[in-house]
């Protein structure tokens, strides 16, 4: 089964430039101050940062199509009043950071999360303050916020917990947070009701943990520590969530921008195999193998020999004297490696073709939905929901609507029956 990514759910015509990435790198400082944001505001904040990231320090303002902004945030609506309210809240939200600068000195700062936002002719224009833009663009510590995962969250508390836990997933624990800090991260620091751990645990912690574990690529488990009779600190143990392995969660754009990846591709290594080697062995080890292969004379297929090197782990110093039998085995292994590379490339091409086809069809479906009146949309929704027999299928459709991955084939068949010409011109590939 092809892996689902955000881009399957977004019409291809709106995915341009940096929006083609699956993840946005968020500065730890920015994450720590966004606790008060609602779910929609938090999602919009991440999409705006993703759109602006490449030009944060070189442009004073940024632009994004309002429809694209809504779709990527999972807000498929023409209700511009709600979008305006969300942007207004981002401009009114204070961002605060407390971190070490390049010289190791403590630096504290405060800024509006957005210094400016406007909507005109279907385009959202916005800006960050210069100080905040610098922090967002050149952070010391990053957390990768996956756009596909973000869109699945239904609770602002759950998304806040995910953002603040995921940056610690490699060390397995967040470390101990004072309860005052944790309530601030969850956006409930101003509520007297949540000063009671009983209320905080029942209304915020347990529901957020359950949603993170069911929705994201990590699983978290809270632990508390008392001072006297009071819960004084909390931490979260973190592990990978194997149940979410079907999601395409790797930071592919980060790997692909590296020198080692570029050298592998220049040698003819397939994209996914190149990323796999870098992930398994690290860039330094892969670079050494590349140097060994490039240092050998008369190598007809560098990709073949590199595959053998990565599998067997040989180095130039370890290579024994020429042996005809060993040479034969290496040649056979190289042929097998090349065959695997070709097969992998073919599978990647098939997956990409399927992804593009599904994205094109989904774009037509969303356009057909938008073209209907609210009454017609509601009628189509109810009609399709009544056709679904399984509880899993019905629940997924209630949650994701026409973007439901589980029901994709049924969605396309339904709309083709409802509007026979809806997919006209897409061709067999779609």
UniProtKB/TrEMBL annotation:
A Gene Ontology biological process term: DNA replication initiation
Residue ranges occupied by any Initiator Rep protein WH1 domain in the UniProt entry: 24-165
GO MF annotation, one: DNA-directed DNA polymerase activity
Family statement drawn from the similarity comment of this UniProt entry: Belongs to the initiator RepB protein family.
Protein name: Protein involved in initiation of plasmid replication
Lineage of producing organism: Bacteria, Pseudomonadati, Pseudomonadota, Alphaproteobacteria, Rhodobacterales
